Structure formats: C-alpha cells, structure tokens
Amino acid sequence: MAASPIPAGGSIDGSMLDDIIGRLLYGGRANEGKQVQLSETEIRHICVEARRIFLSQPNLLQLRAPINVCGDIHGQYVDLIRLFERGGFPPTSSYLFLGDYVDRGKQSLETICLLLAYKIKYPDKFFLLRGNHEDAKVNRVYGFYDECKRRFNVRLWKTFSDCFNCMPVAAVVDEKIFCMHGGLSPELDSLSRIEEIERPTEIPDSGLLCDLLWSDPDPKIQGWGLSDRGVACTFGVDKLVEFLDKNNLELICRGHQVVEDGYEFFGQRRLVTIFSAPNYCGEFDNAGAFLSIDESLLCSFELLKALDSKARKTVGTRASHNASTSSQSLSNLTKAISKKIWITGNKFLDYFRSMASPRSSLSITFSMNPWNSICLLFLGLSNCLEIVNIF
C-alpha cells in the first residue's frame, strides 16, 4: 500500500489527481499489467468525488459528437490503455463508456480508478454509464469483491458500491443515438421515464432499471421474451424499430454481450453491440472495438486485436500508431465522399475499385439519395474498418 499525498479528510486537488492518473498510466504502459500502487485514501477520495459528479449530472445524459463510445472492459486494464492509445487520451477525445468496468479481468481496481479519475478531471468530456456489473450483488460474485478484499479491505468495496449506485444509466448523442448497457424495456415508452429513476439506487431484480442494464436483442423473436440469463427480458426487431421511430431516434448503441468482431449489428443496422475487451477472459479469441462518432454523426469502428505476451510489452508501438493513422485517413476520405456521392454516380465505384490492391478487398454499397446510408467495408491483411453514415 502506497503512502497517500491526500491528508485525512481532505479532497483531491488538480496536482494530486494528475499524479494519480500519471501513476495509473505508467503502470498500464510499462509494467505489463502489474498492480499500480494507490493508497486506500486516494481511492476513497476518487470514489467520493466521482459520486458527487455523477449526482450533479442527469441520469439520461445529453451528449454531443464527436465522441468515442466504448463497450465492456471487465478489468482488462492493459487493453483499456491500448484503447486510449488508439482513440486518443482525454481530453484530446471525448468518451462515453457503456458499463461493466469490473469483474473477471485481473485489474478491475486499476481500470475503475483510471476511469473515475478521468471523470473527475474532465467531467464534461468523459462519461461513464452503469453496467450490470456495477452492482454489489453481481461483483460480489464475479471477482471485484475478492480483488478489493485481497488488496485492501471490504470497506473499500462498499465505497465503490456507493459510487456505482449513483452512476447514470443512459445517454443520447445529438438526439439520434441512444446508448445504454443492456437494452430496451417494456416499461420504456419514452426517454423521460429514465429521468424519473432516482439515485442513489441498487439495481432491482425486475423493472425498467433492470432491463436497461440486463436486456438483450433476440433475432429469433417478435415482441418481448424471457431472457436465458434468468433476469430481465429480450426484445425483437419489431420492438426495436417501434421504439426508435416513436422517439425519433436512429440507432441504439449498447454493450453487455461478447461479440466476435468487437461489434455486431442487429435489426437492419439500427442497433449495434460494442464489446471493448479483446480475448475476453483469455478464452473467447474475440476482437475488441469502440465506436467513433464524428461531428456529422459518421460512425467508424476501431478494432483492438488480442495481444500475446510479447506484444503486451510493446503497447503503444508504431504499428498501433500506423493503424490509427490509416483508420483516420479512411474516415476522412469517406466523409468527403459522402458529400459528393450524388454527383459521381458509378464513377464512385470505379474509382475505389481501382484503389483496391491485390492484397485487399473493397465492397461499397450506396444510395443515389444523399440522405440514405453509405457503407464502406475495407478488408486488409491485419485491419478491418467499417464506416457507416447512419443518415
């Protein structure tokens, strides 16, 4: 346990917070996933201050693009650092995380401490939603309780629980993209219902809050169904479309489920699941991903491949930088194309086919109506980037 620079009963000032963030970042980059030494006092003050900020902001956040939207992290701290290296460290980029920061991974404490510290440092550019694992009943079982007890004590775990009980549960980006951890609920007839949920609160076993954090889309059903999880509900494409149309929304962005490519669409691309923990639990061999939304609501997916033990020693290498640069170039190119597609017609296709190298493939679909969707899929040897203009 490290000595704390914060006096008993004091609060975190800017320099102290910067020191904590600096130690956390150094540990994630240089120590190959080894524990970062924070004091119990430092962590308690982080939780208390983050709790205060959560309660000062709405339960349904109203956010503006550009912003990066990230899915489940589950204590995979080195991969969280990789995500920031790819998307830009705060405050260079704004972030919305969809929940499930703790449990299952080896470094839940480092993960949640860095995220809460960034929330304190940049309260209007960095946003954290509550996931179903930000719940004492769940993380008591799946690892976070044991990590807190082993490294500190049960009292600290309870302090985290008090903080989690105050987190917001949903967000809307530019009045068009609805974000939460789980999914829809039969009790969610309008977004105003979310604002009526009181905080602090534990997660109940049923009802609106439970569904927002636990429910899943199901392509096999229509209407509402019972979840195999034994809690909350499932919903079909019909309920998804009905809700989006009724509330003048275009897309739902959620986490909660591991998906092979890091992201997966549902319901004619009107819902996307994002999962940001590659090689989840060391067993799934999945990619991680996050969604980057630019000012015009052009959405691009950045992928994080799983690292082997040797690669983990070189987090932040030139290869990662080059991949990010290529992705940004392709995003900028597609953004320019979307403004001119109605003029170029078939020449648009011919031009991009001529650009495709023998070692890559390119597939483009588009509409001559400039307000309809544009999809560009580029497949290379080591990267896959999909860019979608949802309007």
Automatic annotation (TrEMBL):
E.C. numbers: 3.1.3.16
Pfam families assigned: Metallophos, STPPase_N
Keywords assigned by UniProt, alphabetized: Hydrolase, Manganese, Metal-binding, Protein phosphatase
Organism of this sequence: Dendrobium chrysotoxum (Orchid)
Phylogenetic placement of the source organism: Eukaryota, Viridiplantae, Streptophyta, Embryophyta, Tracheophyta
Family to which this protein belongs: Belongs to the PPP phosphatase family. PP-1 subfamily.
The keyword Ribosomal protein is assigned to this record: no
Origin: domain of life: Eukaryota
Cross-referenced InterPro entries: Calcineurin-like_PHP, Metallo-depent_PP-like, PP1_catalytic_subunit, Ser/Thr-sp_prot-phosphatase, STPPase_N
GO-annotated cellular components: cytoplasm; nucleus
GO MF annotation, one: protein serine/threonine phosphatase activity
Protein name: Serine/threonine-protein phosphatase
